[in-house]
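ARCHIVE CARD
Drawer: 12
Card no.: 0347
Subject: one protein chain, sequence and derived structure
Cross-reference: see card 0346
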Amino acid sequence: MSALFALATSLLLGLADFGGGLLTRRTPALTVVIVSQGIAVVVLGAVVTASGGWTEVGPKLWFAVAAGVVGPVGMLCFYRALALGPMGVVSPIGALGSVAVPLGVGLALGERPGLPQFAGIAIAVAGVVLASGPQTGGTPVQRRTLVLTLVAAVGFGSVMSLIAEASTTLTGLFLALFVQRVCNVVVGGAALYVSVRRGRPALDPAGGVRALWAALPALAFVGLADVASNGTYSLAAQSGPVTVAAVLAALYPVVTALAARAVLSERLRAVQAAGAGLALAGSLLLATG
């Protein structure tokens, strides 16, 4: 079950990233984050109330608070790094961080995968990096861009680890996800306020509020898929080895690339196609090892 939950995480997160990427072509990224997460807050609030999740309030919720603060910081650093440097360098490092941190946590906790699983981890990680479309030549990356990328990578991985520690029950998980998303909206809202004060628009200059309203279904999908991916990862980490769950959940760049190929007819570069194949081979080793 752990492998299935982890693979569901990669599917949901990959589709959420694809949808978010499409939306940010017309709407500022901060607005996409705040509105999509705001919708998730409303839905999760209803779920927590219906399931009696308020009774699960306890010290573990601080992990959810930390995840809710770290997540937007990591995302903002990632967007800034993409604006300053080549995507072919920034994207693979960001993807690697989402697997390296939880993997390190699992190893630190004493998990020791068998030889087939170690092989699967190595193959899958290589596949994730290659599927992100690494850039091997061109202009050198500035130190500021590299620092921002590393901060984003650690942030992505930390969110996965923190939310997995935020609860031990299903109703507690609903409450933890709710708290995380409230913090996301607060931090994102503060960043949007600063951005607007600096003269950047909060809405699409051409479509305004009407365009945002028309995009609500897509924004809802992005927000809820992102929430669901955190939930399935937490279940995966609690029902099996974190080392396996972390790697399988990090296959989302493959899903994003394949979605772009299917919907936008974007052609995969040779390195991305090779990465997708390696990621699939590695995931099979992990799931059966």
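Annotation on reverse: The chain has a mean pLDDT of 81. DSSP finds twelve helices and no strands in the chain.
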